[in-house]
Amino acid sequence: MATMKLPDPLSRRHLLDGTLEVSKALELANRYLEEGREVEATDFLAVAHAASSEEARVALVALRDEALEQGDVFLMRASSGALGEECSQATWQTLADAATRAGRLKDAETAQRLATVGG
Where are the strands (E) in the chain, listed by range? Predict the structure, then answer.
């Protein structure tokens, strides 16, 4: 079975702006995840999650947890946003600490700011 080719940026935007079946959204999300492109995968997982896909919800929670462990602000915003959640100050502080440990100083600074002012 041939693997699905990832869409170019314009095609990706058209897919996300149009009507996308849950199975196709999940398939594309999984391809992005296989390529290590987690943030792009969240867009397709969000489409599937909006259609009440449990598989998408589980994947988004896993990405949110991964973001917290790695100190990745961008992935945290993408995954928690797709889940319709707002991060608490404690979550941002935990993420800031993880980012500092990982040497992701810009993410640590951003997460610390979000922990202070809310995000």
Answer: none
Tell me the two tokens of residue 86.
Answer: 């707002």
d(CA 119, CA 109): 13
* 13-41 tens-digit pLDDT: 999 998 999 999 999 999 999 999 999 99
**What is the CA 79 to chain-centroid distance, rounded?**
3
Among 40, 38, 35, 34, residue whose Cα is nearest residue 16: 40
For the packed helices 73-83 and 54-70, what is the interaxial angle rounded to 10 degrees?
Answer: 150
Q: What is the mean pLDDT of each run of 10 residues along the chain (119 residues)?
A: 78 92 96 96 96 97 98 98 96 98 97 88
What is the residue type of 93?
Q
Tokens for 42, please give them.
């969240």
Gap between the Cα atoms of 83 and 48, Å rounded: 11
